[in-house]
Amino acid sequence: MQPLRSPELLPPARRDAGATGDGGVGGDSPPRGDGGGFRRDCGGGGDGRGGGSEGGGGATGAGDAGGDSPSRGDGAGFRRDGGGGGDGSGGRAEGGGGGLPAEAYAACLAALPGMGPARLMAVLALDDPAAAWARVGSGRGWGERQVREALGGGADRLVERWQRAARDISPAAMWQRVLDAGVGVATLGSPAYPSALADDVEPPAILFHLGSPEVITGPRVAIVGTRRCTATGTSVALELGRDLSRAGVAVVSGLATGIDAAAHRGALTAGAAPPIGVAGSGLDVVYPRGQAALWQAVVDTGVLLSETPLGIRPERWRFPARNRIIAALADLVVVIESHRRGGSLHTVDEADRRGVDVLAVPGSVRNPAAAGTNGLLAEGRAPVTCADDVLMALGLGSAGRHPPADRRPRPAPDDQALLDVLGWQAATLDQLLLRSERDLGAMTMSLHQLIQAGWVVQHGGWYERVAEGGS
Amino acid sequence: MHASVLSATLLGVEGRPVRVEVHASSGLPGFTVVGLPDTTCREARDRVRAALLSSGLRWPTQRVTVNLAPSGLRKAGAGLDLAMAMGLLVVTEQVPPTAVHERAFLGEVGLDGSLRSVPGALPLIDSLHEPEVVVPSACAVEAGLVGRHRVRAVPTLSALVGALTDRCPWPELPPAPEPPPPPPVADLADVRGQPAARFALEVAAAGGHHLLLVGPPGAGKTMLARRLAGVLPDLSPAQALEATCIHSAAGLPLPPGGLLRRPPFRAPHHGASAVSLVGGGSAAMQPGEVSLAHRGLLFLDELGEFDPRVLDHLRQPLEDGVIRVSRAAAKVTFPARFLLVAAMNPCPCGEGGPAGGCRCSVAARQRYARRLSGPLVDRFDLRVEVGRPDIADLLRSVTGEPSRAVAARVAEARLRAAARGVHANATLPSWRLDDDAPLDAVATRVLELALGAGRLSGRGLGGVRRVARTVADLAGATGPLIGEHVSTALALRAEPIFLAGRAA
């Protein structure tokens, strides 16, 4: 057993890693922050809840980790600050007896390059996390056949890469970072692990969360769709998210721009059932950056999940992996707009593997952003036109809610005529002029009135009809 | 022996008179040029020597010093050759000293004694106040445009010496060529459908409002923009002279009549460098594309592909109508009052529209949006989304109105602007808007609502009122602007889709 070191003796760069600005990129970089205040602000929420699980895991394997771990800060004992942010700095670790919890090692393992969910499962199936980390660090003990099979092709090179990357990752620093961020961690099998995911065919071996994981209980519907959506798509997503939330159904989505974000915004406006967000990046790396406010709102009212360790930027392969978690969490998947080969269809595949029903919102045949969803309908999936369709499919029946009366003022006859020629496709001034056969001045007056009354939205030089007023 | 001959050199697009002083004295034979000549100018010695000898004239066997005064001004090019040759002929007493009195000489000499044209003959001669100028025959038409001088055009040095020594008469001036019929330009009649884009073009031409066309490839943006030149009114004589001076200084070929009567059309490629666009250069201060488009049309196709830093150089000329180029050697002001027409795709793949056919990543779209700075976009008072015409629309629509009819309305509208004392409505100063572009109650309400809803920014308000004024002028409306004028101006000012979300 090596001598214990208190966190104050850690190199400052390590200890403060969570608070520093932008650092390197990539899985094997030292822990880094995104410079946003997001992480720390929400520290309080995660604290108390996460504590139990880590306490339980902390007992396992901590002893031998202290002996073999090649990384710095090894053997330092950390205990979760059970007080939950009483000191205001968001859960600082305290030096003390005992080793790091198993979650710390699991998080380090997950941060290794090329460590996808399947490999992580395979590695953790061999040993407990601490022993697995020691195995990675030593680079030995990968000879057995079943291990090599689990790692897949190129195992030798992978083991070498891991060994190299492991030198730069310190479980103590990783754990400190988790504590600083106020993020809760649960490994598969630990009591804090959401039961909704535990029985999945491909459950994440480790799950980070911000917010309240206990909200993952009631009925849940995933609303997914393309980032390159139309205004119609956004408004349908908003509406559906809002109405489902009002009906007590939690909205699960991926926090991407476009449909995902709109669905969550809708759910947030209803303020009823809590939103569940699943991120592809580490929970302290807001991606896309523009969604920081939405992330925060989801954390405040619901829960944000990710299987990606802190500080890891979203790599391409992490999004399909995230989609499987979305599908696993959902009782039903609704696709609002998807291109012919969009990422949303990957969520659909994952839902199919799990026997989760998929519904799709029909779109115009001229709308390329609806090609994927229309394809789903052609395959025989049920269509969704309003929240009631989803509630029926969930077996909840109609919530007995009638849509609020359209409060928009009725358009004048001329304006109505223009609305009719506009149809449900975005159109330019040119197209509207040709279709309405009116002169530009009168037509733009009508457009102005329609926009003002909420019947039409302008998107750049395009005009698009809005389905329903007010939200 | 000493002689002093008047000539001129170019600084940017303006001529500066230069006195060429030639001094010959006894001493070791030699020839020195002082007074900040550039390399071409310094090489005049060899050209002039060969020309004199080829023309059967004597080269001095004395020590010759040529000073180009004012000596602090940098002299560029070969235009001073002829003046140096004349100075030499005077000091060697081959022509009488009176031959260079009240005469200025401009021209490059060839080794065979012929005289060659110089770039910028028009501004050079414009800067001279001598009653008579002697120029190479090739410059005769340009020299005649100024109209203040008696122009002597000579083909060769020996013909010039013959005339100056009264051995033979001055060569006849070539007859002024008839102004040719305007060259055929692409006609608006070719454009089918796209009524809004056509109207925006008409408004741009009538009011001088800068126009941004956004649309997918194949929507006809370039086709439309090229037809704008055809509906612009002819240049006034003063404007024509300004534009011709710049083209002359840049050494560009002038039309057969010598004068640019039609607004110039410049369409630089998107690989253009900052210097090629705004002017400058290390050796000689050359006008850039913005100045070549002075009083005409600058068309930037594929605006999104231009270097953003290059584009930001456009802000000063768009604001002030001039570009001040400052270099260690010289500071030059180039006129640059042009109508800017730009065309671009909504995103790198070109399909970005609300229909969602775009194949670009979010990051690529954001990068693309950053290529255009907000201040530059703000300078476009007309921003029109040009969609690909529906096939049905294309078939249904009849042939468009020809450029001639549009040009007539544009000319009419320009007259109304001229009555307000401005060249075009785009240059109406803000403090005049309340008098020249008053709003009726409905128009005020439309603007209030648009401002309140965040569809229009305070910054865009002046632009909308100016465009509305032009819309009203085109419709022949007098009196306050009505709702339709303002709503049209608002609709023609849509924020480009890749920037949507910002108030226009």
Report on the structure:
The complex is a heterodimer of chains A (471) and B (504). Chain A has 471 residues and is of the alpha/beta class. Chain A is 43% helix and 11% strand. Chain A is built from 21 helices and 14 strands. In chain A, α5 crosses α7, α13 packs across α14 and α15 packs across α16. The longest helix of chain A has 16 residues. The N terminus of chain A is likely disordered. With 504 residues, chain B is α/β, with parallel strands linked by helices. Chain B folds into two domains: 163 residues, 2-Layer Sandwich (Ribosomal Protein S5, domain 2), CATH 3.30.230.10; 233 residues, P-loop containing nucleotide triphosphate hydrolases (Rossmann fold, 3-Layer(aba) Sandwich), CATH 3.40.50.300. Chain B is 37% helix and 17% strand. In chain B, strands 11-14-17-10-18 form a five-stranded parallel β-sheet. In chain B, strands 1-2-4-3 form a four-stranded mixed β-sheet. A three-stranded parallel β-sheet of chain B has the order 5-8-9, sandwiched between helices. In chain B, α20 crosses α21. Classes of the chains: A alpha/beta (471), B alpha/beta (504). Chains A and B meet through β12, α20 and α21 of A and α7, β18, α19 and α21 of B.
Keywords:
heterodimer, A: 471 residues, alpha/beta, Rossmann fold, Arc Repressor Mutant, subunit A, three-stranded antiparallel sheet, 21 helices, 11% strand, elongated, disordered N terminus, B: 504 residues, Ribosomal Protein S5, domain 2, 2 domains, five-stranded parallel sheet
